[in-house]
Amino acid sequence: MTALGLYRPGTSVLHRLPAGAKLVGLLAGTVLLVVLRRPWQLGLAALVEVLLYALARIPPGVAWTQLRPLRWLVVVVAAAQLLLAGWQQALWVTGGLVLTVALAALLTLTTRVTALLDVLHRLLRPLRRFGVDGDRVALLLALTIRLVPVLSGIVREVQEARTARGAGWSLTAVAAPAVVRALRTADHVGEALVARGVDD
Amino acid sequence: MTEIRFTGVGHRFGERTVLAGVDLVLTERRIGVVGGNGSGKSTLARMINGLVLPSTGTVTVDGLSTARKGRDVRRRVGFVFTDPDNQIVMPTVAEDVAFSLRRHRLPDPEVRRRVTEVLDRFDLAGHADHPAHQLSGGQKQLLALAAVLVTDPDVLVADEPTTLLDARNARRVAALLAELPQQVVLVTHHLHLLSGFDRVVVVDGGRVVADADPATALAAYDRVLADPAGPAIP
């Protein structure tokens, strides 16, 4: 299952904070995590994030779901850093990586997609004179988030159809029908957008 | 009721004629459209809100041409598709309903009020903040319906809205459609849904071959299905 769009409704301070403020916080936090150079700083950052998750009342299981997709990446990065740069560098890089993703996940867990899109819309407003349509960009991002589970469903169905006919996994044999179905879906979604008045 | 008028309507996709010589004036409250796969019935339905513009002839809704006044027509005509996954565009349930109201430029509290009201009506209030992809197939179709009805259109066109649903959910959606104050044009293969309807149009081979009360029209449809010669236009 995808972790995208996994907003968890709540009433904590973090939920009520404006989306713009949270985005600025995420930016500042990410910059901080990159410049951290001492183990105790990393430990302190980890503690702060644990406290923030507690403040937002995110259960540990949900937090783990956000980070689980990272586990193999962490292993590979840590191994490479250990071999090439030593244990300290490995700790900073992987620790920083995990904490940055956790911080970003906290934003999506406590913020509605609509609120984020509204911020984006405001940020893009000055670009209107250069022909950038903020509504379109916001819609594009919302649709992307919405269609990730739809597309993974298509790939799963195509693979199941192959399995049902006794065929195994093959990239080309799955990709071709999946792409065709994805394009058909795109046509249908476009039609539905017109019906819902997007272009009016 | 709204007047939906087809005048000399024909349509071609490339070389293939999908509709020919359609003249209809639809003013009844409950109108069914039936026909086989590829009969042209979906194209006919899509013409009502200007999703498909006729190659020849005109379609008007309360006198507004779908070709020239598409935007005004779409404000009056809501459309529900067969597969709700194609129709749900926002990641969560409440956001998708609110998306329909974007072009109405309403104040936030009014948007919230309307969204809550319509989600209550469709038993989706408990799912307001859930990701849309986690709903069951039946709930997704209810969401699609809610997102269309929140704008309070005059006409609802539904293209096989129960085809992908199980019997229970199909019955549920059909019951909701039956209760609507709106004019409803229902395209369906579930013929029993049409029993209480005012009028049923039978489309075969791109032509209207019967147009009457449900009993008469469906009897004519039966004869079409039994005809070994098949549709007039392949």
TrEMBL record, chain A:
<feature type="transmembrane region" description="Helical">
    <location>
        <begin position="137"/>
        <end position="155"/>
    </location>
</feature>
<dbReference type="Pfam" id="PF02361">
    <property type="entry name" value="CbiQ"/>
</dbReference>
<keyword id="KW-1133">Transmembrane helix</keyword>
<keyword id="KW-0472">Membrane</keyword>
<feature type="transmembrane region" description="Helical">
    <location>
        <begin position="20"/>
        <end position="36"/>
    </location>
</feature>
<feature type="transmembrane region" description="Helical">
    <location>
        <begin position="70"/>
        <end position="90"/>
    </location>
</feature>
<keyword id="KW-0812">Transmembrane</keyword>
<dbReference type="GO" id="GO:0005886">
    <property type="term" value="C:plasma membrane"/>
</dbReference>
<feature type="transmembrane region" description="Helical">
    <location>
        <begin position="42"/>
        <end position="58"/>
    </location>
</feature>
<dbReference type="InterPro" id="IPR003339">
    <property type="entry name" value="ABC/ECF_trnsptr_transmembrane"/>
</dbReference>
<feature type="transmembrane region" description="Helical">
    <location>
        <begin position="96"/>
        <end position="117"/>
    </location>
</feature>
<protein>
    <submittedName>
        <fullName>ABC transporter permease</fullName>
    </submittedName>
</protein>
TrEMBL record, chain B:
<dbReference type="InterPro" id="IPR017871">
    <property type="entry name" value="ABC_transporter-like_CS"/>
</dbReference>
<feature type="domain" description="ABC transporter">
    <location>
        <begin position="4"/>
        <end position="230"/>
    </location>
</feature>
<dbReference type="InterPro" id="IPR015856">
    <property type="entry name" value="ABC_transpr_CbiO/EcfA_su"/>
</dbReference>
<dbReference type="GO" id="GO:0043190">
    <property type="term" value="C:ATP-binding cassette (ABC) transporter complex"/>
</dbReference>
<protein>
    <submittedName>
        <fullName>Cobalt ABC transporter ATP-binding protein</fullName>
    </submittedName>
</protein>
<comment type="similarity">
    <text>Belongs to the ABC transporter superfamily.</text>
</comment>
<dbReference type="Pfam" id="PF00005">
    <property type="entry name" value="ABC_tran"/>
</dbReference>
<keyword id="KW-0813">Transport</keyword>
<dbReference type="GO" id="GO:0042626">
    <property type="term" value="F:ATPase-coupled transmembrane transporter activity"/>
</dbReference>
<keyword id="KW-0547">Nucleotide-binding</keyword>
<dbReference type="InterPro" id="IPR003593">
    <property type="entry name" value="AAA+_ATPase"/>
</dbReference>
<dbReference type="GO" id="GO:0005524">
    <property type="term" value="F:ATP binding"/>
</dbReference>
<dbReference type="InterPro" id="IPR027417">
    <property type="entry name" value="P-loop_NTPase"/>
</dbReference>
<keyword id="KW-0067">ATP-binding</keyword>
<dbReference type="InterPro" id="IPR050095">
    <property type="entry name" value="ECF_ABC_transporter_ATP-bd"/>
</dbReference>
<dbReference type="InterPro" id="IPR003439">
    <property type="entry name" value="ABC_transporter-like_ATP-bd"/>
</dbReference>
<dbReference type="GO" id="GO:0016887">
    <property type="term" value="F:ATP hydrolysis activity"/>
</dbReference>
